[in-house]
Amino acid sequence: MERAYRILVINPGSTSTKVGVFEGDRSVFTKTVDHDAAKLAEFPDVSSQLPYRRETILAALEENDIDLATIDAFVGRGGGLMPVEGGTYEVNETMLEHARAGANGVQHPAQLGSQLAHELASAYGKRAFVVNPPDTDELCDEARMTGIKGVYRHVHLHALNLKETAIRHAASQGKRYEDCNFIVCHIGGGISISAHRAGKMIDGYDIVGGEGMMAPTRCGGVPVVEVLDYLEAGHSVDEVRRLCMKSGGFVSLLGTSDAREVTARAQAGDAAAERAWSTMLYQITRSIAAMAGVLEGKVDGILLGGGMVHDAGLVAHIERTCGWIAPVSAYPGEFELEAMASGAVRVLAGEEEPKVYTGVPVFQGFEG
Question: How far apart are CA 147 and CA 168, in angstroms?
């Protein structure tokens, strides 16, 4: 009988950290550990939050009788890293240095994932991993190019949930992820839409760089000339960056990031809310169709994950507008904790070799 490895996973968010314990693929404990927002605001950067978050997490685990000595491996969300191929990476010193600094230029609580996993693993003499970090980069060459010499496209996506959704859907069909082509969407506070061909995420959008779809907190793609006019009108570069990541989309248009509030307002006759919601759905449809072209129409399924997929109207819209491309399957919520545990189990069971994080970006430009 195969051993059920015991894995603790850590997924830091803006004001909370999700933790879970898995035995094999079975969840035995999950908890969202809340952090005091005022306390977090006292820290000068994300990495300096580490001691505070660690103590609140340890207190919650102790309160729930989780014995860390029984854990076989610790897995954290892999933020702050340079672009890498997908897979499971063992935490090393280079990774920790990059996570502490936010080497990818994006300050996000996910930077704490590898650091927390490493500290706990070190205390108990166990191994620490990250799985499919946010900067997973498997783009095909054509997806990297722009029309400006020396300027290339990069992707920031919900890679962890996107790839796990695809892996699980393929298994449900009796297939391997590596033998399928999927369009995979994460539709939540941020929206990622990606093309997966034979086990690689070959195209997607830079959702923190102002590409793709409007989302609850993100402006999505805006013509460059319009952005220049916006800057010349007196707005700052920092303000534009915030529109890309935190204050765009529904926040800018409607003053809220709550999709449920937006749909309620739209149903009550709020024209601005109805227009914003319809525009987001339109842009999702357009982006899915674009990924179908990338896959040359050979699409085995359109897979939907993320919190907004709980909205039946959203799913019905995508089925109506994109069902002609391929069957649409909805997986409301996310598999992020499960994905992290599964990656560690595959390594511990000898099914997969852990990858080594070198800190060297997977893409460094074209020759010639």
Answer: 37
